[in-house]
Design goal:
Elements: E1 4-8, H1 13-27, E2 34-38, E3 54-57, H2 73-92, E4 96-99, H3 101-109, E5 113-115, E6 120-129, H4 131-135, E7 145-152, E8 155-158, E9 163-169, E10 172-179, E11 183-186, H5 194-203, H6 215-223, H7 232-241
Parallel strand pairs: 1-2, 1-3, 3-4, 4-11
Antiparallel strand pairs: 5-8, 6-7, 6-9, 9-10, 10-11
Helix pairs in contact: 1-5, 2-3, 5-6
């Protein structure tokens, strides 16, 4: 089997390693078949799509909607690298699944309106599939409404005509979308389980996702409901695209 790649942007080792472990567990792949590339550590290497089965993108600290002058040199580099990669990915309709930062990568590439109108605090939300989402092979077998972990400062408030809306939540109209047949992005985190999101809450406690005195409230928010369905998307992506 040709390997899959996980493009990661988390600078902190603990949540970065936890994210990789979650993708390994969710996909059922081992480290030989899911190659992690940490983009915050250095430039994206040239990716030969003919030598890969597909590409995953994890979440991260970058907000596409931030003014250019507030973006670090690393963020500018990563955004430029994704723009170049997605030119080829979209043109070839190559298998791609961006989790959370998929909105900032695929969404930005397609000209979506990305702003802070529909940010969601770290929590569990119900995601409801559209008719297109319910019929999509990646989401096959998922309930029409399922719980998912979220936590994001920005979101898509205007989806371009090139994208197909797959899922929404009460506080965020674009939770999942598809471009072409094989390029996907989610606002929620399909890789996360309860243990994983607790690791992230502690790791990013000072990153502005919640007030310093709201740590216990945030932990309580992610424990209120069971999240069991979204990770099935990762294994389905592998089953659909492994070659």
């Amino acid at each position: 089997m040709k390997p899959f790649v996980l493009l990661a942007t988390r600078a902190e080792d603990v949540p970065a390693d936890e994210e990789y472990a979650l993708f390994l567990r969710g996909t059922g792949l081992d480290e030989r078949d899911l190659i992690r590339i940490r983009l915050e550590a250095g430039p994206m290497p040239a990716l030969d799509l003919d030598a890969l089965s597909g590409i995953f993108v994890g979440g991260g600290p970058f907000n596409a909607s931030d003014p250019p002058e507030r973006k670090s040199a690393v963020q500018h580099r990563v955004e430029a690298e994704f723009a170049t990669l997605l030119d080829e990915v979209v043109a070839r309709d190559f298998p791609f699944l961006g989790a959370c930062y998929g909105v900032g990568t695929v969404g930005a590439h397609q000209g979506a309106v990305i702003d802070r109108t529909y940010g969601e605090p770290i929590s569990v939300v119900p995601v409801t599939l559209t008719d297109d989402g319910a019929a999509d092979p990646l989401l096959a077998g998922l309930p029409r409404t399922f719980n998912a972990f979220v936590g994001h400062k920005e979101a898509i408030s205007g989806l371009p005509g090139s994208a197909t809306l797959l899922g929404s939540s009460p506080g965020c109209p674009v939770q999942a979308f598809r471009v072409g047949s094989n390029v996907y992005a989610t606002q929620f985190h399909p890789e996360l389980d309860l243990e994983g999101i607790i690791v992230r809450i502690h790791a990013y406690a000072s990153h502005g996702y919640f007030a310093p005195d709201e740590l216990e409230l945030t932990l309580a928010a992610v424990r209120r409901a069971t999240v069991s369905e979204p990770s099935r998307m990762l294994r389905s992506f592998v089953e659909l695209h492994a070659r």
